[in-house]
């Protein structure tokens, strides 16, 4: 997954071959049948402007990780640095920059916050992947290298790692593997049976939600949960007319993707959850543009609602980044808030997003209102 021009909306014990387990009662959500709500059902509770200078300008498609003290942001289109902010939005500097020389990375594909609060990064070059830890002083410390060509990763409580390599033959015989702290593959999942040429993609596959670890992948309708060396399907989406057609797996990618784009297709893009709420983010590539369907699941009442957004003209709630204490967090921009909120709502918060030298990212914490 080393070709970065294709972003995902093309542009989501010791064994050598372990399969996923399935459930007879696997919940299936039919996307086209879910009840829709408008963005007025999201009530903004807290606003966190992110301090922006000429040194940390970013686009709108940003990968965000956070813990109790920090936000870390990486621009998905450039992937050349990670920016560090505190929980109030103050800029604390850059981390893990791509460049030449000591304490620079050759490449940056993914990153995580480990249990010690330090950043670890994944860098894939050629037919190998390397994991590094970034010290408090910015030193890039090698953790391991592996012959498994991964594009995303996560770290398990055991200190082992999950690496995802997608359908990238001949480098990945399995789309998902577990490696020990030295990078040796010790378990394999999701046999890669795709035989045609599939161009690499860049995507986020792992979503830590409390004690749960959810996994999604391109062109598949399943949400997985990984626990005790078992990969289990926990949710299936039925995308209806936007499902991936059978011919996609049988034809060359350039031909099949072109045909798919004429009718549209859907991909899972994110999974966020806490004790009260679950959110499944779905990317829709349609002939008329790029859209999202955000599926909200109230875990106490089992109510399910969906909210539609558009990359063309309605991106206020287009980029969910997590859920905390029942509140859904979105990344947006000041300029988007100014045009995306009704005047009465804007008047009540405008003092919290003053004009600056640059347009800047803003994190919104919102509460969804389900109908009684």
Q: Supply the number of helical segments.
A: 3
Described by strand count, sense and barrel closure, the largest sheet is: 5 strands, mixed
Structural class: mainly beta
Query: What is the CATH topology assignment?
Result: Neuraminidase
Beta-sheet strand percentage?
35-45%
**Count of beta strands:** 26
Large-scale geometry = globular
Helicity range: under 10%
| H/E series | EEEEEEEEEEEEEEEEEEEHEEEEEEHHE
Query: In the CATH hierarchy, what is the architecture at level 2?
Result: 6 Propeller
Low-confidence stretches: 1-22
Mean pLDDT: 90
How does this structure look, described?
- With 372 residues, the chain is mostly beta strands.
- It has a single domain (28-368), classed as TolB, C-terminal domain (Neuraminidase, 6 Propeller).
- 7% of the residues lie in helices and 43% in strands.
- The chain is built from 3 helices and 26 strands.
- A hairpin with a 5-residue loop joins strand 22 and strand 23.
- The protein is globular and about 55 Å long.
- The chain starts with 27 loop residues before the first strand and ends with a strand.
